[in-house]
Design a protein that fits this description.
- By secondary structure, this protein is mostly helical.
- It folds into two domains: 65 residues; 188 residues, f41 fragment of flagellin, N-terminal domain (Up-down Bundle), CATH 1.20.1330.10.
- The protein is built from five helices and two strands; from the N terminus they run αααββαα.
- The chain is rod-shaped and about 140 Å long.
- It starts with 8 loop residues before the first helix and ends in a 10-residue tail after the last helix.
Length: 276
């Protein structure tokens, strides 16, 4: 029985329990509705600061991913063009081989020669069109190659070598003035084409190695970005399942605390019975 109406400790205790349950419930509901257990620095300053740093790194890695994707595209286009050049050289070799015969008529030789000139023009077109976003590493316009960043600090790079596949260069040694006007000229063209095919094959091996390095680096950056994102999630994202269960428990606690406040408020009424 309550012995004092000036110091209702039961009411204060019940009210404190109700306020605590209501506050905890509100926080849990906010976490679930927002999806974050750390939204501002006041929630958890160390976790907030760490997540900010990690998010900065993730954003930097997105720029790296764009750079590597660009490099991958330039490399893919270059390899596809180089393969076309190789196939066309093989066809040109067949044309030159046929033109080495000494018993061709003038019309036949002229036909072979015309075909040869058209093939060489097509080869040049393949090389000049091997561009992605105005970047061409096959036509000699990029002697130093093209460099792309591969890490968030931009301290490491990967370079696609600049090459010159145009006729008369170090790769395709076939001259821009060569023709099939005679058996000797056809033999000279044939030899140059044979060497060019070997050169293009060696370049394709090197280009494929570049492509694989870029692909491997892109895979590493993707995994690193995923790991950092997962780390940020662990720091700031709410445990939805845990907080959902907590909300149910806090709702029960809040209800019980409310009943306790009601009971504690009614307890002093017992004193009135002494005056009846």
């Amino acid at each position: 029985m309550v012995g004092s109406i000036n110091n209702t400790t039961g009411v204060l205790a019940a009210l404190k329990a109700l306020q605590g349950a209501s506050s905890d419930l509100s926080q849990a509901e906010t976490r679930v509705s927002s999806g974050y257990k750390v939204r501002v620095a006041a929630d958890n300053a160390p976790a907030f600061q760490t997540s900010a740093i990690l998010n900065g790194e993730v954003n930097s890695l997105q720029a790296v991913t764009l750079s590597l994707n660009h490099a991958q595209s330039v490399s893919d286009v270059s390899i596809a063009a180089a393969q076309q050049v190789s196939d066309l050289l093989i066809s040109m070799k067949g044309t030159a081989s046929a033109a080495m015969a000494g018993d061709l008529s003038d019309d036949q030789r002229q036909a072979y020669n015309l075909q040869f000139q058209q093939q060489r023009a097509q080869l040049t077109q393949f090389i000049q069109n091997a561009s992605f976003d105005d970047a061409n590493v096959l036509n000699g316009s990029k002697p130093n190659g093209i460099t792309f960043i591969v890490d968030a600090a931009a301290t490491q790079t990967v370079t696609l070598k600049g090459r010159d596949f145009l006729p008369g260069g170090s790769v395709v040694t076939l001259s821009t003035t060569s023709d099939l006007s005679s058996p000797d000229a056809a033999q000279h063209a044939y030899d140059a084409i044979t060497q060019s095919i070997t050169n293009v094959g060696a370049q394709l091996i090197d280009m494929s190695s570049e492509n694989k390095r870029i692909e491997a680096q892109a895979g590493f950056v993707a995994k690193l970005s995923d790991a950092l994102t997962s780390g940020v999630s662990t720091l700031v994202d709410t445990d939805v399942a845990g907080d959902s269960a907590l909300i149910q428990a806090l709702q029960v606690k809040q209800s019980l605390a409310g009943q306790a406040v009601s009971i504690a408020n009614n307890a002093p009424q017992a004193l009135l019975a002494l005056f009846r």
